[in-house]
Amino acid sequence: MELTLTRPDDWHLHLRDGNLLAAVAPFSARHFGRAIVMPNLRPPVTTTAAAIAYRESILKVMPSGSQFDPLMTLYLTDTTSPNEIKLARESGVVYAVKLYPAGATTNSQDGVTDLFGKCLPVLQEMAEQNMPLLVHGEVTDPAVDIFDREKVFIETVLGPLVQKLPQLKVVMEHITTADAVKFIDSCSEGTVAATVTPQHLILNRNSLFQGGLQPHNYCLPVLKREIHRQAIVSAVTSGSNKYFLGTDSAPHEKWKKECSCGCAGIFNAPVAISLYAKIFEEANALDKLEAFTSFNGPDFYGLPRNTSKIKLIKEPWKVPECISFPFGEIVPMFAGQMLDWQTSS
Ligand code: DOR
Ligand code: ZN
């Protein structure tokens, strides 16, 4: 069996920098035309000038002949100025601004402490400039149970934000719950959308503890109950144009995952397309796959759809146990397991 798809884009990707960037970028460039590149480096990408420099360093490590186009983002802080948004828009290379609530995840310590108190003028400028806000949708209050943090964020931040600034384009990133699906479905089309990762579509929270602690299935937002997984599978396979592909591929070296305080993040770039195909096939919705992977994202961002194609063939392959680089190793999602779908070049 074969499937031909318009070349997909990845609307949520961590490419890192330095050695790690050079090691992981080719895995995304192989399948995807474009990617929204997350700004949570150390230090974070908070200015247009830094985003331009980061883009150059990504292009430098691309395999020769690659057409991969990195779409840059800015990291929102309490002190981001409205003028920075104007510069971002004028640059032509910054496509969105990312909101990390301070302390929510990897390298979020410089994130926002009080969105409505500190960032309203910037958000107003973003609405004016038609610059989307990409949201890590979890509260950080340690008193809130980690499995409820997305739901509480929707109730206390995202809902009020959409009410206050109905013109602002918002992408709720890597949704994990039925609550998020309900919220996205209730919002107006073209203004609020969501990305969905392969891990949140294929795994539930049992995968964190299957036969022992599984650090390579640990990401944030953390995997949820099976009923939530089913709700997001239904949402993406329904044909709604509010949902699109965002892998949240987030590589960490093996030793940073397999230790006493492991990092959050799943390196899924080598398996993402294969897993999305599996999910849509199992839901009897392969006819809806291409809109999710290749149309809904660019349509939301107001960008042209890709014109080139990729071919998927149903032929079993084994995911490597580990990917070795001169400086270390990374364990991919589904390491050592068999998958059905692969891309043919
Ligand atoms: O699991 C995650 N890893 N979630 C995030 O939000 C950040 C990411 C990372 O950068 O490692
Ligand atoms: Zn992410």
UniProtKB/TrEMBL annotation:
<dbReference type="GO" id="GO:0006221">
    <property type="term" value="P:pyrimidine nucleotide biosynthetic process"/>
</dbReference>
<dbReference type="GO" id="GO:0046872">
    <property type="term" value="F:metal ion binding"/>
</dbReference>
<comment type="similarity">
    <text>Belongs to the metallo-dependent hydrolases superfamily. DHOase family. Class II DHOase subfamily.</text>
</comment>
<dbReference type="GO" id="GO:0006207">
    <property type="term" value="P:'de novo' pyrimidine nucleobase biosynthetic process"/>
</dbReference>
<feature type="domain" description="Amidohydrolase-related">
    <location>
        <begin position="10"/>
        <end position="319"/>
    </location>
</feature>
<dbReference type="InterPro" id="IPR004721">
    <property type="entry name" value="DHOdimr"/>
</dbReference>
<dbReference type="GO" id="GO:0005737">
    <property type="term" value="C:cytoplasm"/>
</dbReference>
<keyword id="KW-0862">Zinc</keyword>
<dbReference type="InterPro" id="IPR006680">
    <property type="entry name" value="Amidohydro-rel"/>
</dbReference>
<keyword id="KW-0479">Metal-binding</keyword>
<comment type="pathway">
    <text>Pyrimidine metabolism; UMP biosynthesis via de novo pathway; (S)-dihydroorotate from bicarbonate: step 3/3.</text>
</comment>
<dbReference type="GO" id="GO:0004151">
    <property type="term" value="F:dihydroorotase activity"/>
</dbReference>
<dbReference type="Pfam" id="PF01979">
    <property type="entry name" value="Amidohydro_1"/>
</dbReference>
<keyword id="KW-0665">Pyrimidine biosynthesis</keyword>
<dbReference type="InterPro" id="IPR002195">
    <property type="entry name" value="Dihydroorotase_CS"/>
</dbReference>
<protein>
    <recommendedName>
        <fullName>Dihydroorotase, mitochondrial</fullName>
        <ecNumber>3.5.2.3</ecNumber>
    </recommendedName>
</protein>
<dbReference type="InterPro" id="IPR032466">
    <property type="entry name" value="Metal_Hydrolase"/>
</dbReference>
<keyword id="KW-0378">Hydrolase</keyword>
<dbReference type="GO" id="GO:0009507">
    <property type="term" value="C:chloroplast"/>
</dbReference>
